[in-house]
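SAMPLE LOG
Freezer: B-3
Tube label: C17
Construct: single chain, 110 aa
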Amino acid sequence: MDETERIITIPLRATKMAPRTRRAKRAIKEIRENIMRHMKVPEDKVWIDTSLNEKIWERGIQNPPSKISVKAVKFDDGLVEVSLPVVERKKKADEVKAEAPEAEAEAKEE
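STRUCTURE (predicted):
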């Protein structure tokens, strides 16, 4: 298996130059073009996940995000799957302190 995985931040500045009623569609096109260039594959080998598509269309057709981070995975057969990256949320110091007494209480009960 020779899978390559990258997390790429794609600027979507050119979408603002498109007519208002075509901006989300233009953003999807820009994502596809950027992935084609960076992963060196033809257009028909780029597959965009529905979650990413919904994220672009989340604010409507006229107001897509100005940039977006995506996870691109290139498989052995040359197909590239583009999806939203799974972001692990860092715990704040307050949350860590709040969890510590609970763990100690559970340990004492056992």
